Amino acid sequence: MRLFLLTALTMVAFAANSVLNKLGVSRGGMEPLDFAMLRLWSGALMLLLLVWVRRNRAPETGSLIGTASLLVYMLGFSLAYVTLEAGVGALILFGVVQITMFAAAVVNGERIPALRYIGCGIAFSGLAALLWPVGGAAPDVWGAILMAAAGVGWGVYTLVGRGAAAPLLRTERNFRYAALLMVAIAVVIGLPMGTPLGYMAAVASGAVTSALGYALWYRVLPQLLTTIAATAQLTVPVIALAGGIAFLGEALTLRFALASVLVLGGVALALRPTR
Q1: d(Cα 78, Cα 149) in Å, to the nearest integer?
Q2: Within a domain: 275
Q3: Could you give phi then psi for residue 57, rounded to 5 degrees?
Q4: Would you say residue 55 lies in a domain?
Q5: What domain count does the chain have?
Q6: Which residues contact 60 (CB under 8 A, 6 or more apart)?
Q7: CB within 8 A of 109, min separation 6: which ones?
Q8: Sign of torsion, CA 69 71 77 82?
Q9: Short-list 220, 234, 244, CA closest to 265
Q10: Whether 19 contacts 247, CB under 8 Å
Q11: pLDDT in tens, 38-47
Q12: Is 58 a residue whose pLDDT tops 80?
């Protein structure tokens, strides 16, 4: 039960990132890349403070792959939404995350029950029904490529985290190195610009739902099978849309209600214990 609650809390943190991103960009006057930059710096400072307070001296170092995949995810995610609709972007992102992590599980010899494939397929079908725009045009090619790269980046970041001996310290190192590289980008494009609302959303996303959420994710990952960790993340868009309804005044539709049942039912089926 404790593992379930920690995993659920992590999914809520991931979904809150989407809500805060939407708030900062659409209402806070920030460009997506500016939001990502401030989010990453805020997360790095929060994690540095936590490590200092805890006087953590564990022999854990940052991972080059972890830092690179974190940057690929954050930059690809932010830049893709310049040309992609939010729903299509989320669908591409989580579709690629599933492919990346299930492929890694197969390569590593993880036994995957047929029920997990079926449940994951049902859940992803629900996401498609929920997120694909009705009568919309095909997504922008470059935007789709950037979001697919973000999906691979997040999948790899998750896989690397399974071997973290000190989750908080590993997350802090990854954020620190990625934030330093973001400084070089800031030299070229300038410091982040936006309204106070945009700044607050970016800082909250970085310091709370990213820094603490990612550290918690690295903590629970060693206790989860790769395919279970992948499937659980299919709930994030549903939680994010529910957050938009609750906090951003977005409309509650019958489509959302029916698709959510399909997504959550598929995830429950995929996670059902097998003999």
Answers
A1: 11
A2: no
A3: -120, 20
A4: yes
A5: 1
A6: 164, 165, 166, 169, 170, 173
A7: none
A8: negative
A9: 234
A10: yes
A11: 999 999 999 9
A12: no
Count of C-beta atoms within a 10 Å radius of residue 138: 7
Cα distance between residue 204 and residue 185, in whole Å: 21
Nearest residue to 17 (alpha-carbon basis) of 101, 73, 98, 59: 73
Residue 154: closest CA among 206, 97, 207 = 97
Element (H, E) at 4: helix 2-22
Note whether residue 192 is domain-resident. yes
Q: List the domain range (segments joined by +) for residue 266.
A: 2-270
Residue with tokens 């299509």: 88
Residue type, 214: Y
pLDDT exceeds 80 at position 61: no
Structure pTM?
0.89
What pLDDT is stored for residue 190 in this prediction? 85
- Residue 131 gets the label, from left (phi > 0), alpha (psi -120 to 50) or beta, of alpha
User: What φ, ψ does residue 259 adopt, rounded to 5°?
Assistant: -65, -35
Backbone dihedral region of 56: left (phi > 0), alpha (psi from -120 to 50 degrees) or beta? beta
Given the structure tokens 């598929």, which residue do they identify?
A: 266
What distances in angstroms separate CA 80 from CA 52, 103, 123, one per listed residue?
Answer: 35, 24, 24
Q: Is residue 19 part of a domain?
A: yes
Q: Name every residue whose Cβ is closer than 8 Å to that of residue 209 and which is 6 or more positions away in sequence.
A: 13, 14, 16, 17, 20
